[in-house]
Each structure stands twice: as structure tokens, then as C-alpha cells.
Amino acid sequence: AGGWQEACARLQSHLQPFSPLHHPSWGQHARVSPALTLSWGGEGGHEEDTCSSPSLIPQYKGKANLHVFEDWCGGAVRHLRKNLHFPLFPHTRTTVKKLAVSPKWKNYGLRIFGYIHPFKDGDFQFSVASDDNSEFWLSSDDSPSNSRLAAFVGKLGTEWTAPGEFTKFSSQVSKPLRLMSSRRYYFELLHKQDDRGSDHVEVGWRVFLPSLKFEVIDSSYISLYTDESSLKMNHVEHIPQTLASHSGSYLWEAQRDEHGADMLKSDPRDTFFLTPAIEASRVENVLVPCAYSPTYVVKDFPIARYQGLQFVYLSFVYPNDFTRLTHMETENKCFYRESPLYLENLLALGTEGLFSRETHEDTTPAPGRTAATAAYNSSEVARSEGPRVTSFLKMSETTVSQREEGKGQEEEEEEEEEVSDYSYETGELQQSWLEDSINWQRTFSVSSVDFELLRSDWNDLRCNVSGNLQLSETAGSRAGVFEIVNVEKRRDTARGNRYLLELELAERGQRTVRLSEYVYVLLWPKGVIASCELPRWSRLLRRGVGWGGGCSQAPRGEPEGCLWLCLAVKNQARWVQQFISDMAHLYGATKDTNFNVILVDFDSDDMDVEKALQDARLPRYQYLRRTGNFERSAGLQAGVDTVEDGHSIVFLCDLHIHFPPNILDSIRKHCVEGKLAYAPIVMRLSCGSSPREPNGYWEVNGFGLFGIYKSDFDRVGGMNTEEFRDRWGGEDWELLDRVLQSGLEVERLRLRNFYHYYHSKRGMWNARSKKPPKD
């Protein structure tokens, strides 16, 4: 009556004493005697079970640990592994009472781990169901290190199941696994949800009988790995790391995609700061000193509120630093938009001068192409859905045969009957349309065009994928030095151009040294050009990293070249810990003892910030504790106030930043006391992107990351702490207005490998959240 399933079960029971069971060894089946047990991760294992389950702490029973990683796009588990904070620093650490979770949220990842307690001895099967992808890992014992992948839903992020749909994919169901009720088994469940579908993940199990259905593993059979309720968020030593979740796992390398960003390729600029500097005496009196007074400085000029960024000009660089985000131009084609900036030069040269055509009968753009006089839409900055600009490439005229074939096409189509694509009726199948004829021999002519030459040094706030302005290649063709590493040109057509020259020289054929000098090329009357040295600027460059003395630990007497990175925080332990770790890594990579960290803490309760600073390998730091709501302007001002020597550089910093190793050198080079401040442009990473896969855009409008001498900071009035109290946004533009009105220039460059990690506003500083509804 039970059918074939019952017959198979009886046959299996009858043969069991004589035939060994098939037991999985993760990819292979190991033969095991029914009276013996096997360690799934090892060989042999023919030992009698004498191990009993450890005594279970009562408060651990009926729950599993849950770690939540928010604000991360993608539907595959491999996307979760790319998260900067995975697996040690989740947004939330809590517990669940069963292995079936549905938060009703989007763009997150889950890691659920703990122990499973079988209710009987025997062979069990597990299955996982989810929207989107998920992985279920199970250990052969209570050790996380023995975990192996048992079942999963998809690997690409496109696979999903309905709730409780445990048999949609073959990969969902595990092989039969021998478990014992006297033992506990470590498990780990990873789940990734994108912004679509109904989010859920659940794990079911059943005794190995095909007639039985999978049932969700509930609180009766799970327990915590550890109790985290009393631990700070930066306390991570207790968190298990397995093959599924360890950053050193082969899964990280195996699932990494090759990325097309040119900026990922090595560049001599990235490590040039490690080259020893040339002795100052070797370059003294090479050029005559001169005063620096550019015409574009707007000192005492009335600037309307938040209009200072319109008076910031860009510098040209050489060689190409590949900061143009060419890999993002499929989504954002603003670099090719025919805006007035580019069109005025394009039209001046004449279309015929730039582009040639084989035929000239038809000048009408083909469908889907952009007319040459199309207006620029300033709202299409972040993402553009417009067609790729191809109007500059002119095809030859349509052939005569094509035109003849097109005649009378409508009449023929009207006479034809509508025939199904799949017809089983007798008779000849007739087409209901005429196929287009393709001229494979069509050729075209085109002249070389460099869009970089059409760009202006005006600070274009509408295009966020274009890179730094590029100097012509002829700029370095006559150089007789060992290598030109970097040239930066600030143009002043009325008085003369300022250059930062960074050269790699072979000193007497013995060693390689670096030369970094500011040079002012003046325009004298009657077109005479003369080069001179900016003595104060060059002296600061030569007295950078590597000169003796170092920053004094006392507030006074700090020599020039001292750099202070100032940051204000409140909670956000995962990001604060990351910042401290990055600063320690920066110190290890540069061995720079002349930089300091100032961290202003608004009474964080999710970590001990001061203890984290003490444990970090930093040359020195300042820790300030403030109470009340988070105030970025007040926090930064309090931090800068601790620096008493005006000849030090302060860099107003932020969380969520990835710093390149040359950041300290870059800040020092572009800050000159009384003359120049520095606002490097950071690249905002898109949701789900990382420094190894940098999709995103340049933050051309933001000036929150700002380097300036302490004396200049005080002279312009510092931060506006009265107007910008417990709100932020706009304080950087307001500071920029006052900096420019004081007569300072602001250097604005896109800095390679300088990233801002994606994050939402959830859980930030003074944000309030609703209490979740009870189950």
C-alpha cells in the first residue's frame, strides 16, 4: 500500500547489516559501517563514539547568532564576501529563534551561525531556500574549522526560490549526513538579498527518507555559538571564521572578477613618495626667486553664499593618470556631451576639419544618434540613459540596391498573410517581412580626435566621470631627465603658469632621487617667457617626509611638515575601527612619523574609541571626548583647536574613506601656508563596489575633505559652529567661500585610488529609527 517508497525502505533496512552506507566526505562518498562514525573532514574515523555533547548553557538554547550587513547591493553570496566589514564588523549583532528569517528589507546580507542538535541518531538531509542566493555550511562536529558547504541556492545572484520551496534546484538538497543526538554540530548560513523580490531564507531538514518533507529547523534544535549581548561592536575575537567567511579563504580569490578600471593599473605616482628626496643644496639658486600673484585669486571679492566652488579652477596633469572613469561611460556619457565647453572649440575647428566622410549627400543623423547641436542636460549627471554619441562617425550613403529593395515594401506586406512562427500545416512557409540588406563592404573615413584637448580648466560640476585635465604629450618630449613622474599646471593666461614638477633623477649614476619643485613661468611684456622659483613653496616641499626632527609631541614647537588628520565621530564602531586600522596601515606603509590623528568622540557607546587608539600602532594621536548630539563642525573645530602651532597642516577628514598610501605626501605637496589649500576629489563607490572593483563617480561637488595650514584656518574663521550645529551638509561650501575670499587658492585634483565607501544614512549619528514590530 505504501508504494515503491515503502518497498525501497524495506529493502534498504534488510540489506543494511551487509552493505555499508554511503556517507559524504564533501564531494565524495565515504563508506562507513553503520555501527561506526566518521569525521567528515578526515580520513579513517573508524572509532567508536565515546564523545558526548558538551553541557549546554541554558541561555544559549533555542537561539542562533545573527549578523546583519546592510547597505550592500547584489544578490549573490560572493557579493557579500566583497563587503569591507564582512565577516567581523556587521551593522547589527542579534539572535533568531529559528532558521527561517524574513526581515522585509533590501540590499543586505545575513550570517547566521550556531549549533544544531539532532533529535535522533541517523542520516539527515538538509535543504536551504531563499530569495536571493544562500549557502548552508555544516561541520562534522562542533568545530567551525571543519565546516563544509552542504547546500546552496545559486551562485550568480539571479537564482531564487519561493518560501518553503526546498527542491527547486539540485544544489539545494544536501547528501545524507550521519548525525548523532549526543553531539552538537556547528552550522553557518549565508544569505544575500538585493532590492527585488520578497526576502527570505530558511533551512529545512528531514530524516533520510524520500517520502518525508523538509521541515524548518526551529528553536528546539539550535543553540548560540556565543552570547554577544554584553560585547562592544569592535570586540571581534569571539567571531568564528571559516572557509565560508574568512577573508583569506580561497573563495575570495576564486570569485573575484577582473575589472576594467584603468585606475587599478600601477602608476609611478602611487609610490613616488618612497623615493629619497634630492638634497636641498643641489637645487638651490638654480632658478631666480620671484613673487607669486595670479590674476584669478578672488581676495576680498564679494562671493554669494555657496558660490565659491564656481571660482575653483582645475589643474592640468602629465602624464595621463587615467583618472577618467572610462568603465562607467556606458551608464554616464557626460564626457561626450556636446556642452558649450566642448562645442565652442569643436565648431571653431569646423566639423569638416575634424571628421571626413566618403559621401556628402545626406547629413541627417541616423536614428538613435545625437545631433551636433544637442543641448546639454545638466540633470543627467549620475546616470544617463541617452544613446552613445556616434554622430561624429559618418557612414557612406545607403546603396542603390537597398533603396530599390525598400520600394513597394508596404504594399507587399499588406498582401502577405500572417503566418505563425511554428506552423505544421502543409504548404510553403512564407515570410511576413523583408529582411534588411547588410552592406559588409561599407567603409568610412575618420580623423583623429582627442576630446581632452577640448576641455577647459573651468570646474565642471556637471560631469562626474571625467578625469583630471591632461597636458599635451609634447609637454614632456624635450625633457632630458631620467623620468617625468608628474607635472601639474595651473594656467594663468594673463600673468603666467604655475607648475609642480616631480622628476626622478639619476644622481651621478649612483642612486635614484626625486625632485619636487614649484616653478612659476612668467609672461613678460612682448611675449618673453621666464622661469623662476617660488622659494617658500619649494622649501616646504623639500622639508616634507624624511627630514629630521619629526613632530614634537608637545603642542608647541611643532616644525613645518607636521600633518594632523582630524575626524569627528559618534558610534558607527565598524567604520571608526576601520579608520583607526587604516591609519595604522598608513603608518606601516609610509613610516611617516610626522602625521597625527585627532579623533573627537561624541560619547560613543558601541565601542571604546580611546582603547582602540591605544591598541593601534600609530606614531601619535589626540583623543577628545564630547557629550551631546553629534556636531561635525563643532567636533572638527575642537580637534583643530588642539593644534597650537600655526605652521602645521590640518586635514579635515571623514569616515567611510579608503586612503591611498600617497595621501600624506599629496596633502603636503598641495598645501602652502598663506597661498594654497587642498581639496582632493574622492571617488564615491556605488552600492556593492569596492576599491578592487571601483564602480562609481567622482564627487565633484563635495569639499568636506580639506587640507589647509592651521594659521590659514584660523585666519578665515575656522568652522561655522553657530549655523551648522547638529546638522551637516553645506558647511564645506560655506568654509570654501571664506577660504577663497581670504585670497587663498584651492587645489582641486582627482586623487587616484581615493574612495568613499557606499553607505546609507541609516544608523548615522543623530538618526532615529522606529522600533521593529514584534513577531
Question: What do these coordinates show?
Answer:
- The structure is a single chain.
- Among the domains are: 23-254, Sandwich (Jelly Rolls), CATH 2.60.120; 549-756, Spore Coat Polysaccharide Biosynthesis Protein SpsA, Chain A (Alpha-Beta Complex), CATH 3.90.550.10.
- It contains 15 helices and 31 strands.
- It is an alpha+beta fold and 775 residues long.
- The radius of gyration is 33 Å and the shape is globular.
- Strand 1 (21-24) and strand 2 form a beta hairpin.
- The model is unreliable at 14-52, 349-407, 543-550 and 553-560 (pLDDT under 50).
- Strands 3, 4, 6, 8, 9, 11 and 14 form a 7-stranded antiparallel β-sheet that branches. A 6-stranded mixed β-sheet has the order 16-15-17-18-19-20, covered by helices on one side.
- GO terms for molecular function: N-acetyl-beta-glucosaminyl-derivative 4-beta-N-acetylgalactosaminyltransferase activity.
- Residues 410-420 have a biased composition (Acidic residues).
- It catalyses: an N-acetyl-beta-D-glucosaminyl derivative + UDP-N-acetyl-alpha-D-galactosamine = an N-acetyl-beta-D-galactosaminyl-(1->4)-N-acetyl-beta-D-glucosaminyl derivative + UDP + H(+).
- Its EC number is 2.4.1.244.
Feature tags:
775 residues; alpha+beta; Jelly Rolls; Spore Coat Polysaccharide Biosynthesis Protein SpsA, Chain A; six-stranded mixed β-sheet; globular
